[in-house]
Amino acid sequence: MVQTTNLSDLPEDLVMEIFSRLPVKCLLQSKSVKKDWYALIENPIFIQKHLNHPNNPTNYFVHHYFLDTMKSGFTLFYEQNQLFAKSHLYQDVLNTSTYLWEILGPLNGLFLLYNDQEEVALWNPSTKEFKPLIICQPLNSPSFHLSSYKFGFGMEPSSGDYKVIWIKDYWDNYSENWHSPTIISVYTLSTNSWRNYEEFNIFSRDMVKSSGNTYLNGFYYWKACKNDKIFAFDMSNDTIQEIQTPKLFISKQGDLALFNDFIAMYIYEPIIIGRETCIDIWVMEKKGYWTKKVRIGPFCNIKRSLGYGNKGEIFLEVSTWQLDIFDFCPKKNRVLGRQKNGYFLQAFAYKESLVSLKKNSFVI
Questions:
Q1: Cα–Cα distance between 77 and 60 in angstroms, integer?
Q2: Which of 179, 219, 225, 354 matches a 20 to 30 Å C-alpha distance to 50?
């Protein structure tokens, strides 16, 4: 007679190992089966184990725009022998179909979303948790207009608490000049609140939004418009530093992203369709010290890069309504998707996550 073993009879560490191999959808369903399973799946230690488990693959999350519906959509691509689309996760997250969303991240499976209507939210596509952030403008005078801003999204390293940085330049219609100082607003998830302070030496209009995730080890990074420096926001003490870049960068085009656990600049000549383009990857091995790691390419018929993965993946929009992904190792291009009724906006490397926006399930 074959003896069967009930999952409920297994030791907790073995149950944790089995559960850590399951997709988020199955785990969310399992939470309602037993109180012990609910407690396990909500445990921050388990959430971290699941996020980093080898069975939790890196997928590809693409943000695109449909011309026929005038809506932005999100498609998750996953790999099983070959790449193909899983499903549209959301056509329009906040039911504001005329507004285009910008996305930052992902960080532990979370994204920051914002639009030009000053709506800001945090989002976990895996759990479908969505948290609009309450906005309170520090300058409410009718003469002040929020004219330029940049966002950052990261984590305070000692506590694992998530933070949103909003750097704001206001135009004063009365004086017809920029308001000084710049206002910096910092949102903390655990307290669900903003703190505002002033900065005289930093301007959001001098910064460029990153094409990929640029949070690393307690700092969020932006590059300067002229490529002559980068800005680093320290999540531990809410301060900003300026870091110089090589003079070579100034005469080139560049994007800031991560590369093998370093902050990196992807440097290239202006992209012209029909002309071959190479991309040089420079990493900052320590503050202010940059090293050229590799040249990749040449690529032809590239319109622009749409994002970067942490391990050297580059998402490239080509001239045939196509989105390719270039894998650094092995060095090859693959077609990620096509979009004839619209265009691609952003692309990200993405892993499913159980991190919650409702409670302290922080992953350090």
A1: 5
A2: 219
